Amino acid sequence: MAGPDYPAELSALDKALTSIEAVVDPAAKKVEIAELSEQVAAPDLWDDVDNAQRITSRLSALQSEIDRVADLRSRLDDLSVLIELATEESDAASLAEAEAELSSLQHAVESLEVRTLLSGEYDPREALVTIRSEAGGVDAADFAAMLLRMYLRWAERHGYPAEVYDTSYAEEAGIKSATFQVKAPYAYGTLSVEQGTHRLVRISPFDNQGRRQTSFAGVEVLPVTEEADHIDIPEADIRIDVFRSSGPGGQSVNTTDSAVRITHLPTGIVVSCQNEKSQLQNKAAALRVLQARLLEKARRDREAEMNALKGDGGNSWGSQMRSYVLHPYQMVKDLRTDFEVSSPDAVFDGELDGFIESGIRWRMTEKV
Fold first, then answer.
1. Tell me, which fold does domain 6-115 have in CATH?
2. Coiled-coil ranges per the record (predicted)?
3. Is 204 exposed, middle or buried (0-12, 13-18, 19+ CB in 10 A)?
């Protein structure tokens, strides 16, 4: 069997990487890195903790991005040299090494290419994800818990910190809902393609007759708000209730009423947080979630106005987007992109990158 057409493959990689470099613009990012580095060196930086965290996080993200591009360029240069030497000397072992590196490099460049497609207003932000059980009773609640673990495992695989703010447990098994934050640059742009209704088909472990059950869970993804968003929430517009945190089955977790529920009276939006140790921390976290929901509502209102002006019916983001089938066969399929795999266990263990990347590419074609 013939090996790869190395000149053509290397030329294609060079072209793709050059295109990525034009979008990333390392020179401009190095200027911003220099400016941020000066701010980080200021002795009073940590007098304002939130601002310090924002600056250091941005600095780290920028440095990581240009390092990633530089590393790929270095790998491509090294691969060209390896192929040239191996070909001249007919070194089969080195050619096998080159073929493996070529495949690895192609995958890395494709993944970075997808990142350059994240150009939306809020795409660079961290993400707030809420999962809710929908139709399907106890199976839906169990499915929602499976999705929560799936996304937390995905974050863990990538080294992204994730914090669960609130979990509402179902009576028999699983969860009614859960909200968590993924604290990584571009988490919102990346995970926003996961928004929609997810469907699970399986033999229900909760049906003593072993019948097949279809259940549904909804995923909502919001960008984390920043100071520049300027969402003013008058105190008169919110009602704050405190209650005792509880775990599965209703066991008391805290001995004090530290959990916080905030109701935004004008919109009816309700958020809660019971993960932190103090009432003050829970209130701050709940307010962050409320800010994100209000920001998203404002964005959707603007989008609805634009769609009304354009005379179209908007998009179908809230519709069913992925199907997880465990019986009578094994398959997970994205209903928008037709991307599918035959290993549901791997997907539920956080192997989501294929779905996310195809979703981002699909979204770009839909916009076009």
1. Methane Monooxygenase Hydroxylase; Chain G, domain 1 (1.20.58)
2. 69-115
3. buried
